[in-house]
Amino acid sequence: LACGHYRCAYPVHRNVLCVWNIATAQPLYLSGHHNSISALSFGSKIDPLLVCSASREHVIVWNLDECTQKVQEGFTPRGIVIGTLLGTVLHIRFSPDDQQVAVCTGNQIYMLSAKEEAILAKLDGHVAPVTAAEFCTWEKSMLISISEDRTFKARKFVWDYSTSQLIYQSGIITACPLLSLLIDEENKQIITGCAEGQLWIFSLISGHNYRCVAHIDLKKEQEKFCNKVWKSGKEIGEGQNNSKLCKTDDMRPEGSVETSLPILLIEHCDFFVCFHDEENTYSSQNTSYFWIGTSTGLLIINLANFELEATLSYRDYSDLSIQIARSCALMRKAANGKVLCLITSMFEDMIAVLEVNLAALMRTQHNDFLPRGNEKSLSVIARYRIIKCFLSMLDDRFVYLTLKYVFCRGKNTVKDKPLVFHNKIKSSGYSAAPRMTMFSPNANLKKQKASKWKASCECENKEYPLKSCPPIRYEKEVSVTCKPTPIFCVEYSGDGELLACGQADSTVLIFNSNLTDVHHVLSGHDGAVNSVGWSHDRKWLVSASEDRTLRVWSACNKKPALILGKEKFHKPVRFAQFYFMDTFILLCCGAEFHLLSFHLDTTKDDLKRYKQRSVCKLVEKFPMTSTMEITSLSAVNEFYSYIVLAAGSNRALEVFDLNAGCSTAVIREAHVRSVHQICQNKGSSFSTQQPEAYNLFLTTAAGDGIKLWDLRTLR
């Protein structure tokens, strides 16, 4: 099946091509094949509009304008044979300029000329039949292919068909064959689906090395969506009275069988065009939506949060004779707010044409979100707008008022007392073993030293410009290098005087706070710098790199005081910071984080000038539960706290108590995507409140948005 440019193409009597014009409702029959037609595709351009059909013996390109004219004149239309005896063709695709045609047959891909019978290139590499191939529109002569060998030969083969050279090849990514493929031009991503309902998204941006952006289990997402709507008492589709949207596994009828969910089609969804007559339906028109065609129905997925927006099941429509589809095709452009869909039956020679009213489908499943008619009352805010509204509130007055309250309160009510830690009275009973303390804070600070520290902090607080507006626009832009170089991390020192930047060129730059001068350039790493962190006393800077090393630098000179080499870590160090008032160093490596004790000594011995006098010792390793890699780590260094927070590639958030030396809580699926940043409320070192009160709230950021958590309830 094929759909494009308000036309549908499908085989009739197995070897006759029928092209149906939606505007005129007139079919055009094209004969030229002797065997069954196995693949169809429309061209990329409208003038001339081409369609290609393939069978075992011929691959034929038809000019529909010329064929229509021939029929009107009473002649038999003829196409151009561009390939002969290539074998069983599973997929064909035109290039963006309609000059070439990619033909997937067996384990090979033939690049054919669209104007004459000529093989331009023959691409090998797959070890099983190639199921789909797509051209990359922004990269000339690049073709991406997937196969039943469970690879996308590098998560999909990437070829340069002009030189017939393999550019990238992936390993096996799933246990089931890959069936469908789509290139998202807007986000420069490829989306592929397999026979088990798994969806993968990979980045095609230069420098990303085809990394996996997201993995979506459509069966789980469909069940979550169905349960949510089913609990609200809604029904799916139009004209259905008896079928509920979905049931959970424990409600499945006895004797029923759980089937697979093969992804037959991935296509762009003309989402906002279908709502052109409704105001304020969705606010973010930068969001991409896609149709997912499966053997049992159609799904609409939102690429901003990877959630389902609507689902349509074939079995819920009594008028539809096909309940399980073998193939599917969708019209990318909507006509009069409706999308045309073609499906073929798995068991019979039957084709069904569906007209899907997207606005009506969304309204039946999102009654709480979508406005109806000219209603002017406020509706519930859509879930992907909450984050946007929250951020806009922060940009307005919320941050300013909060900061003003904190600093004014600190100036008027803070007493001249150092921070006091209250110890609990232990029981003298013999029924339980005494609790072993891993480490405890040293609260015996000298009053004179604490008083000076407090006075300096008060001076800094008084200098805060309370009457100034919040920072809503940047004041200065500084080019850190002569050539474009990514900056992977930045961090201000606690007093705000210095700014450290870790760069992809393996250097660390230290600027003055006003960005007028480079204070230091620290070089020594052999890979990109992933993390930088200041000590509490602002004298030291720790940096972690992709070269599997960690360095501690003195803020006074350019030489490292401590170097931990590659023999200490089996994977790149993603994050490092000082911890427990500069008593330890925390770092994450792979799926675990390390707690290190250290002693820094910058003095040199003339006889052993090259020997490092600083020492570092591993205290403990803490593995995170069921994850491949820790993506973010956070701990408070401004006061004594035992809490360490870790986020993993499994989208979970885990809370560790280092005094107990174990994990205390796990928040599974904290976000739809992996958390890439954790921020804790660190508070003030001289507040009259207990420091633990500041450590009860945290913020996590991921690709699906920002969340504020309460550690007391883990919500």
Automatic annotation (TrEMBL):
<dbReference type="InterPro" id="IPR015943">
    <property type="entry name" value="WD40/YVTN_repeat-like_dom_sf"/>
</dbReference>
<keyword id="KW-0853">WD repeat</keyword>
<dbReference type="InterPro" id="IPR036322">
    <property type="entry name" value="WD40_repeat_dom_sf"/>
</dbReference>
<dbReference type="InterPro" id="IPR011047">
    <property type="entry name" value="Quinoprotein_ADH-like_sf"/>
</dbReference>
<dbReference type="Pfam" id="PF00400">
    <property type="entry name" value="WD40"/>
</dbReference>
<feature type="repeat" description="WD">
    <location>
        <begin position="30"/>
        <end position="65"/>
    </location>
</feature>
<dbReference type="InterPro" id="IPR042411">
    <property type="entry name" value="WDR27"/>
</dbReference>
<feature type="repeat" description="WD">
    <location>
        <begin position="522"/>
        <end position="554"/>
    </location>
</feature>
<protein>
    <submittedName>
        <fullName>WDR27 protein</fullName>
    </submittedName>
</protein>
<dbReference type="InterPro" id="IPR001680">
    <property type="entry name" value="WD40_rpt"/>
</dbReference>
